[in-house]
Design a protein that fits this description.
The chain is of the alpha/beta class. It has helices spanning 20-32, 34-40, 70-79, 102-112, 115-118, 167-179, and strands at 44-48, 58-63, 89-94, 119-125, 138-145. It has a five-stranded mixed beta sheet with strand order 1-2-3-5-4, sandwiched between helices.
């Protein structure tokens, strides 16, 4: 942040992220309000408001899924909560998914979502700064259920077990990677 003791015009600079207002929003809307959201939604495990969403353009939430359609219930509940009503995109993932890891969230969306079954389009209030909507402060928003789909939700095929590399193998490969000076180390 830019500041001086005898400020002429105290303000924050707003613009394409990352700007200083993004970090103010991250602290207040994400970390400070998460406990309040959990009071209303105890199934909520974690919340990420990506800087690129400029506060409430996008919310990624992880939940402890307890029933069919739970992700859709959470989306609607979030859209019904104060400032969160302006959230344009909500992505819901399972509790064990790290919402702060964009790669892991993208992997879940790209591999768990069947668009006709797992996407919810709803109309409602939007942020005044949303320039994509044809109307000011009102338009379409989208919820994406990237949780593991249950048979009761229309997925009758088997769901694969999650795979993870053995940590010993990862350590050996990482050591050799550096030794061989390969990119992406």
């Amino acid at each position: 942040m830019r500041r001086r003791r005898d400020a002429i015009y105290p303000a924050t600079i707003v613009g394409k992220p990352p700007m200083e207002d993004c970090f103010l929003g991250k602290a207040t809307e994400e970390r400070l309000f998460l406990p309040l959201l959990k009071l209303a939604l105890p199934e909520l495990a974690d919340l990420e408001l990506p800087l690129e969403g400029v506060f409430n353009g996008c919310a990624i939430v992880s939940i402890r899924k307890a029933f069919a359609g739970h992700a859709f219930a959470v989306m609607n509940a979030i859209w019904g909560r104060g400032q969160m009503r302006s959230t344009k995109f909500i992505v819901v993932v399972d509790e064990h998914v790290d919402v702060h890891d964009p790669g892991e969230v993208a992997w879940r969306v790209f591999n768990n979502v069947s668009p006709e079954r797992d996407c919810l389009i709803a109309c409602g209030p939007l942020d005044a700064l949303d320039h994509a909507s044809p109307q000011a402060r009102f338009g379409a928003r989208m919820g994406i259920d990237a949780t593991r789909t249950w048979p009761e939700e229309g997925h009758v095929r088997g769901w694969p077990d999650e795979l993870a590399m053995d940590p010993v193998v990862v350590a050996r490969v990482t050591a050799r990677w550096r030794e061989l000076r390969l990119p992406f180390s």
